[in-house]
């Protein structure tokens, strides 16, 4: 057999021209695709070479990576194609990209299939391009972004989804949802994207620990399902961009958002860890400074909009002394929403003077920017009343702007750049109500029926990307009154995302517990409101996750309170890197009358950290069995509150456990497990 292969580090793409068979592998997973003699482009198999798990396609249901529709023309597993070109190339970070260019036999479209595989990740990333070969404009109105159907092997399957923030805080926010698929084809659904209900991710596994996970790189609203048809013997994924009607002119190419499918063997923690390692290695915007991130931040919203230069200066003095790294001025600094000039009554010397003061104290300066909103009386809407979207949302009385309308977009990009320059901004707290607005106006530059796609890719994504390209040293945080756009496109532009918005200790722990299935811990930013008080229970509740944002007015702290907070900040800083790169173990879920535990194990340092919290439960102690340790290694175990110290092997700790005293309701401790130096 003749193989035209190309190897890049651990990743390799092979093409067998006799069989028109492509094999993409990185030594961990392998995927094969074929253009059959009949001209159908089909998925053949995806396998986990380490675990030996094999996912075959079903003979009863041919499946293709190609599944889209332009007007009435469907391109899928039943479409006959000719091979036009194929090539492999190396990509960064280390990996390989296989491109297959197909033309449908009727000459209506050129479909380019793109597969990517990266070294040391059990993930296949892929995308399609559709080129309109007809003389008229067509409309892409259907895409399946997760076009995978596999033989079910007679097994039963369980799906995992995770909710996102729901704007009106609910106990279900960031709750993980496990569902056993029935075998009669009932769909389990993920409704994701801005203003959706779940994070843009799903995992599936059978009782033999054989698992798949998938995520899609799109911020608009998407419906993704998985279902099992036991009578025909397959499991099937489907993921559609809602209300899609994207015009593609003659000989113009349209690219479908990237998606990934990954393999794991084990439990949901393993599914999460494999997803997160891929996200950090390939997708996510790199953290500003890996050694000092996630940041400890302070945010002015404890004062609501009653801020001024003197108040901010007094808080900045204390913040710098406590070890705060990022000082954020929240809503209320500007003349109005949509009028992004500092209020001269609050800042007689200009906001730039406050920013300079913050910088002189050694902190970064962050600014609130609700870019997709404008008050009805703002100059921009007075001059351009038609720039609003038809969306019914409202943000502090402001109206929604249509970001995919070109003139609005141009103005907004210039305003963002001016604001950054004028106020010496290092960090933007993006905020607002739903970043992907609905807009059906025919007076705007987008297609009135293509609102969801247009307002995500050509709206919020285009605006943020243009500002970031112009000012690349400014970092952005994602927020829509909370983490309401938890997607794998979001991670590409923002270095963190808020989860729950200032809703207190228990909801904060719940958010971290759920969101750290799909997302790396740094994408679980938590705002700690003043109402939490300054107790160990409160600060421990914010120990695990992304940036820790203090909202307590600092100028009023007693010396004791300041000393306590300073110590807690030091503890947070000493552990954030281990947690950021570690595997998250979800031991016990938080509840109002429960004890909860979340643990991290960092392979590189062989250390583990666990936060053990007793809410309103009655148990005075908890026997904690840590996970993921090296069985033969001897470890030292110590606590931040309890004075006990243990020396045991990993095997002993994992089987026998360690008893953690939690003497009264709302008590907590942090356990440290460190390798004993031989
Ligand atoms: Zn519009």
Descriptive terms for the model:
35% strand; 678 residues; 8-stranded parallel beta sheet; 10-stranded antiparallel beta sheet; Immunoglobulin-like; TIM Barrel; globular; alpha+beta; Beta-galactosidase, Chain A, domain 5; binds zinc ion; 3 domains
Given the C-alpha coordinates, what overall shape results? globular
| Count of separate structural domains | 3
Write the CATH architecture name of the largest domain: Alpha-Beta Barrel
- CATH class category name of the largest domain: Alpha Beta
What is the CATH topology descriptor of the largest domain?
TIM Barrel
Fraction of residues in helices? Answer: 10-25%
The CATH superfamily of the largest domain turns out to be Aldolase class I
Unreliable parts: none
Rg over alpha carbons: 26 Å
State the distance separating the first and last CA atoms: 53 Å
Share of β-strand residues:
35-45%
Report the sheet with the most strands, covering strand number, pairing sense and barrel closure.
10 strands, antiparallel
Secondary structure tally: strands: 44
Q: Which class best fits the helix and strand makeup?
A: alpha+beta
**Each distinct ligand:** zinc ion
Number of separate helices: 11
Mean pLDDT: 96
Structure notes:
- The chain has about 675 residues and is α+β, with helices and mostly antiparallel strands.
- The chain folds into three domains: about 5-285, alpha-galactosidase from lactobacil brevis (Beta-galactosidase, Chain A, domain 5), CATH 2.70.98; about 290-580, TIM Barrel; about 585-675, Golgi alpha-mannosidase II (Immunoglobulin-like).
- About 20% of the residues lie in helices and about 35% in strands.
- The protein contains eleven helices and 44 strands.
- Strands 9, 10, 11, 12, 15, 16, 18, 19, 23 and 24 form a ten-stranded antiparallel beta sheet that branches. Strands 34-33-32-29-26-25-36-35 form an eight-stranded parallel beta sheet. It has a six-stranded antiparallel beta sheet with strand order 1-2-3-4-5-6, with no helix packed on it.
- Strand 41 (about 635-640) and strand 42 (about 645-650) form a beta hairpin.
- Helix 5 runs parallel beside helix 6 (about 450-470).
- The N and C termini lie far apart (about 55 Å).
- The model has no long low-confidence stretch (mean pLDDT about 95).
- Zinc ion (ZN) binds near residues 405, 439, 441 and 446.
- Zinc ion binds near residues 389, 404, 439, 441 and 446.
């Amino acid at each position: 057999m003749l193989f035209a292969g190309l190897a890049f580090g651990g990743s390799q793409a092979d093409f067998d021209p006799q069989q028109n068979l492509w094999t993409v592998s990185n030594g961990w997973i392998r995927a094969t695709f074929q253009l059959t003699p009949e001209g159908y482009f089909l998925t053949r198999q995806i396998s986990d070479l380490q675990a030996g798990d094999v996912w075959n396609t079903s003979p009863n249901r041919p499946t293709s990576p190609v599944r889209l529709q332009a007007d009435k023309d469907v391109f899928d597993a039943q479409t006959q194609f000719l091979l036009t070109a194929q090539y492999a190339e190396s990509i960064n970070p280390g990996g390989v990209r296989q491109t297959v260019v197909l033309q449908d036999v009727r000459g209506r479209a050129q479909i380019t299939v793109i597969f990517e595989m990266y070294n040391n990740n059990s993930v296949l990333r892929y995308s399609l391009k559709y080129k309109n070969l007809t003389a008229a404009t067509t409309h892409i109105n259907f895409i399946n972004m997760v076009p995978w159907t596999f033989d079910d092997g007679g097994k039963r399957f369980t799906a995992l989804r995770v909710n996102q923030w729901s704007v009106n805080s609910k106990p279900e926010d960031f709750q993980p949802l496990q569902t056993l698929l029935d075998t009669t084809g009932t769909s389990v659904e993920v409704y994701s994207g801005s203003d959706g209900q779940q994070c843009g991710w799903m995992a599936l596994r059978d009782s033999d620990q054989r698992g798949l996970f998938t995520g899609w790189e799109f911020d608009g609203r998407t419906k993704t399902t998985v279902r099992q048809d036991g009578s025909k013997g397959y499991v099937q994924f489907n993921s559609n961009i809602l209300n899609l009607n994207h015009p593609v002119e003659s000989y113009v190419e349209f690219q479908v958002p990237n998606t990934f499918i990954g393999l794991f063997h084990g439990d949901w923690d393993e599914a999460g860890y494999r997803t997160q390692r891929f996200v950090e290695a390939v997708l996510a915007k790199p953290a500003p400074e890996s050694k000092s991130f996630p940041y400890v931040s302070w945010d002015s919203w404890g004062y609501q909009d009653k801020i001024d230069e003197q108040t901010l200066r007094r808080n900045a003095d204390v913040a710098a002394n406590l070890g705060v790294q990022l000082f954020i001025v929240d809503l209320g600094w500007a003349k109005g929403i949509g009028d992004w000039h500092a209020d001269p009554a609050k800042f007689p010397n200009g906001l730039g003077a406050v920013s300079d003061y913050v910088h002189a104290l050694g902190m970064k300066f962050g600014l609130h920017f609700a870019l997709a909103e404008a008050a009805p009386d703002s100059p921009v809407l007075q001059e351009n009343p038609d720039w609003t979207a038809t969306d019914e949302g409202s943000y502090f009385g402001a109206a929604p702007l249509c970001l995919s309308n070109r003139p609005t977009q141009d103005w907004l990009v210039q305003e963002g750049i001016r604001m950054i320059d004028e106020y010496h901004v290092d960090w933007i707290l993006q905020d607002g109500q739903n970043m992907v607005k609905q807009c059906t106006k025919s007076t705007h530059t987008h297609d009135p029926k293509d609102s969801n796609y247009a307002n995500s890719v050509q709206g919020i994504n285009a605006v943020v990307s243009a500002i970031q390209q112009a000012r690349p040293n400014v970092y952005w945080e994602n927020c829509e009154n909370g983490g309401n756009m938890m997607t794998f496109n979001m991670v590409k532009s923002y270095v963190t995302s808020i989860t729950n918005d200032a809703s207190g200790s228990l909801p904060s722990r719940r958010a971290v517990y759920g969101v750290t299935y799909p997302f790396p811990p740094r994408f679980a930013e938590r705002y700690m409101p003043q109402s939490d008080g300054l107790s160990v229970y409160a600060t421990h509740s914010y120990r695990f996750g992304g940036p820790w944002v203090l909202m307590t007015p600092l100028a009023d702290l007693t010396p004791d309170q300041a000393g306590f907070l300073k110590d807690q900040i030091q503890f947070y800083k000493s552990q954030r890197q281990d947690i950021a790169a570690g595997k998250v173990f979800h031991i016990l879920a938080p509840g109002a009358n429960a004890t909860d535990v979340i643990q991290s194990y960092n392979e590189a340092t062989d250390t583990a950290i666990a936060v053990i919290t007793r809410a309103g439960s009655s148990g005075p102690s908890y026997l904690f069995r840590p996970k993921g340790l090296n069985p033969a290694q001897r470890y030292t175990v110590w606590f931040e509150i309890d004075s006990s110290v243990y020396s045991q092997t990993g095997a002993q700790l994992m089987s026998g456990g360690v008893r953690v005293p939690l003497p009264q309701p709302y008590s907590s401790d942090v356990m440290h497990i460190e390798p004993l130096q031989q």
